[in-house]
Amino acid sequence: MGAESVWSVDPRTGERRGNEPVAVVSGPAAVDAAVRAAHAALPALADRARRAALLRAAAERLHAAGPELVAAADAETALGAPRLTGELARTVFQLRYFAGLVDDAAGPGGFLDVRRDSADPALAPPRPDLYRVKVPLGVVGVFAASNFPFAFSVPGGDTASALAAGCPVVVKAHPDHPETSERAVAALRDAAREVGLPEGTIGLVHGFEAGPELVRHPLVAGVGFTGSPRGGRALFDLAATRPRPIPFHGELGSVNPVLVTGAGLAAPGAGEELARGLAGSFTLGMGQFCTKPGLVLVPAGAAGDAFEKALADATAQAPAGVLLDARMRDAFLTGFARRAGLADVQTLAPAGPAATPDAPQAVRAGVLSVPARAALRGSHEALLEECFGPATVLVRYADAAEADAVLARLDGCLTATLHTPATDPDATARLAALARFAGRVLFGGWPTGVAVADAMHHGGPYPASTSTSTSVGATAVERWLRPVSFQTVPEELLPR
Amino acid sequence: MGAESVWSVDPRTGERRGNEPVAVVSGPAAVDAAVRAAHAALPALADRARRAALLRAAAERLHAAGPELVAAADAETALGAPRLTGELARTVFQLRYFAGLVDDAAGPGGFLDVRRDSADPALAPPRPDLYRVKVPLGVVGVFAASNFPFAFSVPGGDTASALAAGCPVVVKAHPDHPETSERAVAALRDAAREVGLPEGTIGLVHGFEAGPELVRHPLVAGVGFTGSPRGGRALFDLAATRPRPIPFHGELGSVNPVLVTGAGLAAPGAGEELARGLAGSFTLGMGQFCTKPGLVLVPAGAAGDAFEKALADATAQAPAGVLLDARMRDAFLTGFARRAGLADVQTLAPAGPAATPDAPQAVRAGVLSVPARAALRGSHEALLEECFGPATVLVRYADAAEADAVLARLDGCLTATLHTPATDPDATARLAALARFAGRVLFGGWPTGVAVADAMHHGGPYPASTSTSTSVGATAVERWLRPVSFQTVPEELLPR
């Protein structure tokens, strides 16, 4: 009996691509082999200069392979060449960015977070010489996301930050882009070989069962995950119930509320501009962003009505498109229809199938509207939860108390956005209220687009994240390190 | 039906103290009330100057109440006035230390960990203005330890670091010192009132069932725990299986190995000095330290034999003493006898009852010795695990490979100690090997005594800790914070 095949599928048609599978499902032995090979690479990765070289070589090779990578990713995800070209550029930038962090790791503000104390026998208790530094956790398991075949997948932020920390990686490929995954891991492994690191530094496994196998493996020391609440929670539970539990840094979904105040709609043309901006943001990448604004609080009354109309118009003009796979398409259409069918919910723009000859699986975006008091009913909970895909829900509130009541019902979020003038006397209080349940708070603008930056935080209270960490930006590397204090160790014997 | 009573017990006699209970068991309603009162204090604690004032006022009041606190703690724990006076001084120092960290929180290296990025539209992806800062998690549940009625209990490091972070606290008192807990919380609440904070800022609950109740409470956002592997793991599991899981920072036990090399015993008198030092360390506080050296790797041969003899002599001279409670006394005597009865285990000093008229429950310290190859047998696993109380196990190794094999079998540890000359050519490699499973690595000296310092790390791989955090030192405060990024927020609207 041979191993099960892994096929690449064209989401535009739902058909398999080519006559050959692109990989085979990884059984327990294959997962074990990948983890052991990664573990064997740990000592070699202790050399920081080599780690930085690996990240730069990987960036170089991914950039060089750009056309082939983008073509494969577009064929598998239908995200389109322009978006995927941009995503690959981001991924290349991110690898170089983490290489720079490795260069600076031992300096002030560097991620080794070195702290020193000199002996002081007069203190109570007496203080010895102490040197604290961070060390790599060990092998990191990475679960690739469906919606970012580069930036949150094989060569993405989890992999880059783990390698920067000195942790070898085994990636569980997402079934929506196995060919892209194979091409990307080949580039990474070539880069490893080029800089004299073992190929096992980066492993790749395929298949549903490989996921739990990876999380349970005794040599896996931490996990990064981007995906759905259901899948993420199941793996979180596995990580927590191991004989030796390990950190599970999961990003599980977010509704990303936007609060538009009356004053935010007051300026001439403000409503139309916001409506255009929102339509662009919630349909970006066919709404398949973890930061998609999925719930927009809009005041009741004429200005809000005009905003609704402008949004319906802008949405009607958004091009139809294809979702990542058939399961997501079904979940999107079913989820939208279920919400649309709730009492007092009005459909401003109907999501639905929008087949073309080239893309029989295409869909169009949708917008719903509901009064806040209806949204607060127990029966209407789905309106306050993420609907993955190009849909958003307007919640019309009569007063600030109603808006606050809706916000108080939300789960933890990656982002929350406020649209109000800077002169709003309540602006500070509103921002503070949004920070209570979100990891990134925007004043104006839209939450889609997550900069790779020192001050970025991409995470939030559960279920946005399963930990207090970020998966994007400089501090993402902290997830894969633990501190060690060296006490009264002679200078010449301290780790570099 | 009234609430169940909580009595203070004299461990020297095993009898109840006084004619009145010191508290009542906290039922679900009492736990809920304490958590809600703490949650209501969150906004007031946002004022950092007030937090610092609270910590300083608490230090002042605990210092002033020193004689009464020490008398109560000695009566309940038998740890002795000198040790408890020192522990209280440490606790007072620790509160002031965290007050200083609050003063400096917003500055460079401060725990708010502020990071800023200015907009750069030329990057891919473009970077907006970003301001990242850390905010308090919410109400923190603290589980007091048996063995440190001050420093790791009501007014201890978890409480001090949580308050420093801006998190109100509800402490689950340890049943070994309920009177001390009541006195300490009164001092803390008086301090809160003095600085204009609600008394609910610090709550106290009693009773076994109050523990799970606290961990499950929806308004509890994080937990600090110091205690046994069994109790800690049960609570960790509860925290992980909540609908919204919360961070559980538990310290669950550690065997704290010491590696003595042949060269470490070579200098004249070195063995005798090490033996005296070890005897002092493993019997300190009747061996009831989480950092007690419980396993000592000693080379086979004449120098090791002389060390054994010197240790047996030093242990015989150690005074008998009383353990924290009857359950621990039973577990210690049973655990020692079980280990002593294993094949090829030699008893160098017999632990056992050592009653005096004043302290009928007193015990004496014990030492076992076993060849490394015997210790590696599956049947002998208990020798590689913590035995709480004044006992240590010498493991005699024939060569470095045997010593390494024993170290490789150990669970994660809080500390690991190396005794070898600085000229040992393998010293660096040995330190690195110890850092693989320990959170603090000592070159010489003994692991008991944990300085409150910027560079301290008191934690280690599971089960030493359930997370990568420390419960002592400056970075302990990181456990109770999460980052938030503010994007394109005008300067004047940013949180202070």
Automatic annotation (TrEMBL), chains A, B:
Q: Where is this region: Disordered?
A: 1-20
Keywords from UniProt, A to Z, are:
Oxidoreductase
Q: Name one Pfam family in it.
A: Aldedh
Q: Which residues form the Aldehyde dehydrogenase domain?
A: 26-451
What name does the UniProt record give this protein? Aldehyde dehydrogenase (NADP(+))
- Taxonomically, the superkingdom here is Bacteria
Kindly list the GO molecular function terms attached to this UniProt entry: oxidoreductase activity, acting on the aldehyde or oxo group of donors, NAD or NADP as acceptor
